[in-house]
Design brief:
- The chain has two helices and five strands; from the N terminus they run βαββββα.
- By secondary structure, the chain is α+β, with helices and mostly antiparallel strands.
- It has one domain.
- Strands 1, 2, 3, 4 and 5 form a five-stranded antiparallel sheet that branches.
- A hairpin with a 4-residue loop joins β2 and β3.
- The longest helix has 13 residues.
- The N and C termini lie far apart (27 Å).
């Protein structure tokens, strides 16, 4: 998992908002979409590897995969939350 001392220091590279750890339900939904081959990232590539965790931007718009305790904060690898949940963020 993410080092709790690191989390307050990182920001969403797209919105510049703080990030938080996504809940288990969202992680499960994301992994199910990946396994079905239905998930596309911001760079329009199919996401092929399941995630251990997700970081979500404070506004709920962007998800960042975490694999092996390493967050991937590359903007084009971000996943629009609405593509996982099926509805736009608030």
């Amino acid at each position: 998992m993410i080092d709790p001392n690191l989390l307050p220091l990182i920001r969403c590279p797209i919105t510049k908002l703080p990030l938080q750890i996504a809940d288990a339900t969202l992680i499960q939904q994301c992994n199910e979409a990946i396994q079905r081959g239905h998930l596309i990232d911001r760079g329009e590539r199919r996401v092929e590897q399941v995630v251990d965790a997700l970081l979500i931007s404070q506004d709920g718009a962007w998800l960042y995969p975490v694999r092996g305790s390493i967050p991937t904060l590359i903007p084009n690898w971000a996943i629009a939350a609405e593509k996982v949940t099926g509805h736009a963020s608030p």
